[in-house]
Specification:
71% of the residues lie in helices and 3% in strands. It has helices at 5-20, 22-29, 33-49, 76-99, 106-125, 129-147, 154-189, 197-202, 204-213, 217-231, 240-243, 249-258, 263-275, 278-300, 305-325, 329-360, 376-390, 396-412, 421-442, 460-478, 480-495, 512-527, 531-544, 550-572, 577-598, 613-631, 635-655, 659-679, 691-717, 725-738, 743-776; strands at 56-63, 68-74, 786-789, 792-796. The protein has a two-stranded antiparallel ribbon. It starts with a helix and ends in a 12-residue tail after the last strand.
């Protein structure tokens, strides 16, 4: 049964519509606007739930002429991610009114949060490549607004800019990869399916073969990997995520644990059947396991509870990326199941961190302890979520991590002598996962620090959302197969090349994966008593070695680009017309010549002398006039000689039977001559042109001349396939597609319209120039303007009390 277009469109559009009228909600409900957001999230959740069990593509035409439509594809993987976004969104909206009580700018906060939820649902369901990119970038835009919510806080603005630069920059790589993918799809599937990802995934093997045959497989794989890595905080671009903790805690729970940071992981799972292979395996397993290890170690060095959770999130994202990187079915199972499990326990832990900060007034780990006596319900929630994060059986995180271990063991038998590295690295990273999970849990036990003030019970609306998530984690822990059968299996079928029935449960016999879990848990318990020493050692290395800190590299690069940009701006925008002309003409000529070469438009051309004697004489006079302009000793002689060249062009048009062009040329030439004569007295009598600048101007003049010459050759030598091909095509299409009454009518509108527009622009510019020159003559006398060249002042000039002109 196919999905319902109206329901799918409504589920995506509803959050955006609610975001647009949030100011009205806030005017009526005030801080209770968060509960309106809860209603919107539950409504979208309900609409999507009605599509459960259905699969197919629905489309709303967008740009029919380019075969671009708002296509949405519904399957288990899309519904899993979209339902997580709406479900956790509803809990975050419920949590926000109490946590954000008394804050300014709440209308902006809720509007951005709603738009973000709609963007995530859009990414999950969109199958048109253009729509995927637009929703992808909308998540970055909303994240920028939410991370920078505290507009007066420098650290908040710094973090927002960092997140925007990294994720949007990665999105540009993604865009190029998607466009390359569309080129291959257009050749293989036809233009109507060029942007349809669902159509490409119907035959993933054929798409991969086509990519390899065209030499685009590795470029597409690399570009898509960069886009996914930036969004999902993979090493070495992981550092934006811990900095994003400057956002309010509900934002961290929603964006940076459960949804936005998983967009990259989701996309990796989506394109996995089409790109899976040896290169895929090496790239994503290496990237994921590196991120999993590095960020787990950095989480142990954290001093702030949100910083700890941020690094742990990046580490678990690495686990998911690595899981999807393994080509076995265990990898796909681990990726899909852990995406679901992680959303439950990590969102709960972030909301717990918000409760702790809200009630204890601090997020510093060293200043917290014994919280369980004052916050018993929160302690229970934390126990469930933290043990799930650690992968302790029988909690839900254990089952998906066990699948990862299975994938590493299987691949270790297939890749030769170094195969043992995969399970070894997974064990090492998982030991650190146990350590930081137990450290977070220990905040609720043990002695209470002396400096910790009185802690009161949190409002019910702060407790209910994490309690719901913890309860769901308990349900999955008790019966993991229920979650698999309900939603995970359908997600697996969309991400695995060879899906099979998935079965999970507590192991009843020994296996290598069970042994890895035993080593992981046992190692974490043995090392935990020495957590303080390990924390200090790691933090000491990070603090005393600046290049190890990712922020250091970011600051160096950004500050360097800022300084270079400032220098470049001062060099280009120095107020000198000569400088502006140099940069503009150089850039224009470069782009034109490179474009001709790239389009293979420059080819050997045979030049003939098929001209009459009069035309040859006129052109000869024009060439001599051009030489005379260069050799003129005075401005007036140069201007008059230049006008001779212009009049020769007009005569050429007359001899070439183009009197209308000749008339236009004569008018323009006369107008230019008048303008030059008006400004001639404002130009200095001599120029201080040094050798370097003279050579530069000469080279630029040659480049401009060559560009004009090549442009004329390329445009005049272009011919259609058949002398009347274009005419026949235009005659056939003109009336039905242009809406005219006859061919002449359409030709006048289509072509003469451009000509008339250009003439109007020229006339308008000329009129403005003349008015400006006339106005300049009315300036007061006695003003002195210094004339300067590129290298500094070259003297001043006065004439009858009027100001001297600038040599530029």
């Amino acid at each position: 049964m196919s999905p319902d277009l109206a329901i799918v469109i409504a589920a995506v559009a509803l959050p955006f519509a609610a975001a647009a009228i949030t100011p009205l909600f806030f005017r009526v409900l005030g801080e209770g606007t968060g509960f309106a957001g809860t209603f919107v999230a539950l409504a979208s959740f309900g609409l999507l739930a009605t599509q459960y069990g259905q699969e197919g593509t629905v489309a709303l035409e967008w740009v029919p002429s380019l075969d671009i439509a708002l296509r949405f594809h519904v399957d288990g993987w899309a519904l899993l991610f979209a339902l997580l976004a709406c479900g956790i969104g509803a809990l975050v909206f419920t949590y926000s009114p109490a946590y954000m009580h008394g804050q300014a700018g709440l209308s902006r906060y809720y509007a951005a949060l709603l738009a973000f939820m709609g963007s995530i649902v859009g990414v999950a369901l969109a199958t048109d490549l253009i729509a995927i990119f637009l929703f992808w970038e909308l998540t970055s835009l909303c994240s920028f607004v939410l991370i920078g919510y505290y507009t007066a806080d420098d650290s908040s603005q710094y973090a927002a800019r960092m997140a925007m630069l990294i994720t949007v920059g990665g999105g540009l790589f993604l865009l190029v990869g998607l466009l390359l993918l569309s080129v291959v799809a257009a050749d293989l599937l036809g233009p109507e399916s060029a942007f349809n990802l669902a159509a490409m995934l119907e035959n993933p093997e054929a798409m991969q073969t086509a990519l390899r045959e065209q030499g685009l497989f590795l470029p597409v794989l690399g570009l898509l990997a960069i886009g996914a890595a930036t969004k999902s905080a993979q090493v070495p671009l992981h550092f934006w995520l811990p900095n994003a903790m400057a956002a309010p805690t509900p934002v961290s729970a929603f964006l940076h644990s459960a949804t936005m940071v998983k967009v990259g992981v989701y996309f990796v799972g989506r394109v996995r059947p089409m790109l899976i292979g040896p290169e895929w395996f090496f790239l994503f397993t290496t990237l994921g396991l590196t991120t999993m290890t590095v960020c787990a170690v950095l989480a142990v060095a954290a001093t702030d509870i949100k910083e700890l959770l941020a690094y742990s999130t990046a580490s678990h994202l690495g686990l998911m990326v690595a899981a999807f990187g393994f080509t076995s079915v265990y990898g796909a199972e681990a990726g899909v199941f852990h995406l679901f499990n992680h959303a439950l326990f990590k969102a709960a832990l972030f909301l717990v961190a918000g409760i702790v900060a809200h009630e204890a007034g601090t997020r510093k780990i060293d200043m917290l302890g014994g919280l369980g006596r004052d916050l018993p319900v929160t302690a229970v929630i934390t126990t469930v979520a933290a043990l799930s994060m650690a992968g302790i059986p029988p909690f839900n995180g254990f089952f998906s991590k066990e699948l990862l271990f299975e994938a590493t063991v299987e691949v270790s038998h297939d890749v030769g002598m170094l195969g043992w590295l995969y399970p070894a690295v997974a064990i090492f990273a998982s030991i650190f996962t146990v350590l930081y999970s137990l450290r977070f849990l220990s905040l609720f036990f043990g002695d209470r620090p002396d400096g910790l003030g009185r802690i009161t019970s949190p409002p019910v609306t702060l407790l209910v959302p994490p309690a719901v998530l913890a309860l769901l984690a308990v349900v999955v822990s008790v019966d993991p197969q229920l979650a698999v059968d309900t939603i995970v299996q359908s997600g697996l079928e969309a991400t695995a090349s060879d899906p099979q029935e998935m079965y999970v449960g507590i192991p009843t016999s020994y296996s290598p994966a069970v042994g890895m879990s035993m080593v992981t848990i046992g190692g974490g318990l043995v090392v935990f008593p020495f957590y303080g020493r390990l924390h200090d050692a790691i933090r000491g290395v990070v603090q005393q070695t600046p290049p190890v800190r990712a922020n250091w590299w970011y600051n160096v690069v950004v500050d360097g680009l800022t300084d270079e940009g400032r220098w470049f701006a001062e060099t280009v925008h120095n107020g000198l017309l000569r400088t502006y002309a140099t940069w503009t003409l150089t850039a224009t000529c470069t782009l034109a010549l490179v474009g001709f070469v790239a389009a293979d438009a420059v080819a050997p051309t045979e030049f003939g002398l098929d001209v009459t004697v009069p035309i040859a004489l006129v052109l000869l006079v024009a060439v001599l006039g051009g030489v005379a302009v260069v050799r003129s000793e005075t401005h007036i002689a140069g201007v008059l000689t230049l006008s001779i060249l212009g009049f020769m062009v007009a005569i050429f048009y007359i001899l070439a039977s183009a009197p209308d062009l000749a008339l236009t040329q004569l008018v323009v030439e006369t107008l230019v001559l008048v303008i030059f004569l008006l400004v001639i007295e404002e130009i200095p009598k001599s120029y201080a042109i040094g050798l370097v600048r003279g050579v530069r101007d000469a080279v630029l003049s040659l480049v401009v001349g060559v560009t004009a010459f090549v442009t004329v050759i390329v445009t005049t030598s272009a011919r259609p396939d058949g002398s009347t091909a274009i005419a026949r095509y235009f005659t056939k299409k003109a009336v039905p597609e242009a809406g005219g009454y006859n061919v002449v009518n359409v030709a006048l509108v289509d072509f003469r319209g451009f000509d008339t527009l250009g003439e109007l622009v020229v006339i308008a510019l000329a009129a403005i120039s003349i008015l400006t020159l006339i106005a300049m003559r009315t300036y007061s006398d006695g003003e002195l303007t210094e004339t300067r060249g590129d290298d500094g002042p070259t003297g001043s000039h006065t004439d009858g009390g009027r100001s001297g002109g600038n040599d530029e």
